[in-house]
Amino acid sequence: MTNPSWGPIAGHDLQPLARLFADDPERLSRLSLTLGGMYFDWSKTPLDEALLGKFEALAEARNFTAAREALFTGGIVNPSEGRPAAHVAERGSGDTEANALAATGHARMRALVDAIEAEAFGDVTGVLHIGIGGSALGPDLVIDALGRDGARYDVRILSNIDGQAFEDAVAGLDPATTIIAAVSKTFTTIETLTNLSAALGWLVEAGVEDPFGRVIAITAAPDMAVEYGIDQTRILPFGEGVGGRYSLWSTVGFSIALALGWPAFEELLEGAAEIDRHFRFSAPRANAPLMAAFADLTATHVLGCQTRATFAYDERLRLLPSYLQQLEMESNGKSVTADGAPVSGMTAPVTWGGVGTDAQHAVFQLLHQGKVTVPVEFVTCIEQEDGLDDTHHRQLLLNAFAQGAALMTGKASDDGARAYPGNRPSSTILLDRLDPRTLGALLAFYEHRTFANAVLLGINPFDQYGVELGKQMAKAIDDPAERAKFDPSTRALIERAGL
Ligand code: F6P
Questions:
Q1: Whole-structure pTM over 0.90, yes or no?
Q2: How far apart are CA 100 and CA 432, in angstroms?
Q3: DSSP bridge partners of 34
Q4: Do the beta carbons of residue 4 and residue 62 sit within 8 Å?
Q5: Which atom of ligand 1 is found nearest the CA of 245?
Q6: Rounded distance from Cα 161 to ligand 1 centre (Å)
Q7: Separation of 60 CA from ligand 1 center, angstroms?
Q8: What atom of ligand 1 comes closest to residue 221's alpha carbon?
């Protein structure tokens, strides 16, 4: 693969944001987009015409168009694992064969949802969804965001191996009327298997007959689930090409479909499919994920930012930052190119964030006056859904917009402690409303932005070897012979903890 130089971009002479607005009356319309019930505004980032041109040249040098086409046509976009990435097929946007496989998975899933609704499993009131990482974060976010108006089942998401998490998750659930959804792509993940075993024990203790009969396994490794003791009829498979952090659209979304109903799950997929079409067919400057990636790379490669923060000014999206952390950092937190050569310059920055307005009273001090520049993304929603008068919602939105303005404008003062440097970049995503379709669109936008960043960086976003060493060592540390090989500090910790 060619390795284009970042020189022209890294050396770009950035103008202050205020000057960029003053010099170009069309700036806002050039750097904003309306799409899929969302309005994107990158005008408060330092992107300018010349820089956009350089990014377009970089995209060309990286064969962006071909890479994007490969994503939608089953090309090997995950070379280290020799696989395509099949998440787009889960919304019907992949190649014919992958779309058909995904549709088969969805049909099985729907049949099981229908069966549960028809009480084939008796009275069901709760769902204990056990999974971790991509097998939990997406469903957790979607159910938390959209299930507030009374989800149809009490869905609890259990991920951590900490027994406290197990106790919290089952508190108030009736074992006799709870279905266990064990979600693991590999069906080998220690946290998930340990929690599944505890859940089976919880059912046994409560006198539930046939505890295994209450378990639905959702996995890309059905043989492993069968070996575990789950009957074939209660296994919902999904394709090996669906990466964990991209998997909520597949049968991994089983708990979403149960909580919100099948029509809502379909709407989620349709919203994502709309963004698939947009990403695949739009020209660079009209392409939301690509424009967002240009803004991201301006922050990392021109401004030298090491972190990026997303603040959801909507309580329903409070889990968005955690979801984005896995999506972006597990995808693009790499140091080598797709060919295995060292990457020069930054790859993924640290993704963090929180909820507005809470964050304003905690971390915004640093954003306004700290010595590091953190590009901020505001995500908020025009339509109010809480049942109060509009006082809260109005203030919520006005605060989000005021923060972006304050970061950019700053304020001069002779008193350094009261001076705000300003010229700090931010972008905004304004949703018309938060419904399944728009949330599907938003999450697909984030997926494609992550992919666009990866292509421009020349890295593979679909593997995650970085997590393997820790897993291996967590196993070895439990073996007395292996343990002796650990460093003195670690051995002392084990000894002190009495392990
Ligand atoms: O450890 C990282 C990881 O492999 C993630 O990529 C994945 O989402 C998570 O663990 C869970 O894996 P599984 O679905 O196989 O249990």
A1: yes
A2: 32
A3: 39
A4: yes
A5: 8
A6: 13
A7: 33
A8: 15
Q: How many CB atoms lie within 10 A of CB 111?
A: 12
Cβ contact 274:130 at 8 Å: no
Task: Name every residue whose Cβ is closer than 8 Å to that of residue 233 and which is 6 or more positions away in sequence.
Answer: none
Evaluate whether 7-82+267-463 and 95-260 have a shared fold.
yes
pLDDT tens per residue across all 499 residues of the chain? 457 889 899 999 999 999 999 999 999 999 999 998 999 999 999 999 999 999 999 999 999 999 999 999 999 999 999 999 999 999 999 999 999 999 999 999 999 999 999 999 999 999 999 999 999 999 999 999 999 877 789 999 999 999 999 999 999 999 999 999 999 999 999 999 999 999 999 999 999 999 999 999 999 999 999 999 999 999 999 999 999 999 999 999 999 999 999 999 999 999 999 999 999 999 999 999 999 999 999 999 999 999 999 999 999 999 999 999 999 999 999 999 999 999 989 999 999 999 999 999 999 999 999 999 999 999 999 999 999 999 999 999 999 999 999 999 999 999 999 999 999 999 999 999 999 999 999 999 999 999 999 999 999 999 999 999 999 999 999 999 999 999 999 999 999 999 9
Task: Encode burial over 120-151: b for 16+ CB neighbours within 10 A, e otherwise.
Answer: ebeebebbbbbbbbbbbbbbbbbbbbbbeeeb
Q: Is 49 a catalytic residue?
A: no
Specify the ligand 1 atom closest to the Cα of 134.
8
471 catalytic per annotation? yes
Is domain 95-260 annotated with CATH 3.40.50.10490?
Answer: yes
Q: Which residue of the set 26, 119, 209, 361 is catalytic? A: 361
**Token digits of residue 306:** 């090491």
Pocket of ligand 1 from Cβ distances under 6 Å: 132-135, 184-186, 189, 192, 244-245, 330, 464, 467
Sign of CA dihedral 99, 257, 353, 148: positive
Domains of the chain by residue range: 7-82+267-463, 95-260, 467-496
Residue nearest to atom 5 of ligand 1 (CA): 133
**Probe ligand 1: pick from 467, 468, 471, 475, max atoms within 8 Å of CB?**
467
CATH code reported for the domain at 7-82+267-463: 3.40.50.10490
Ligand 1 atom nearest to 192, measured from its CA = 16
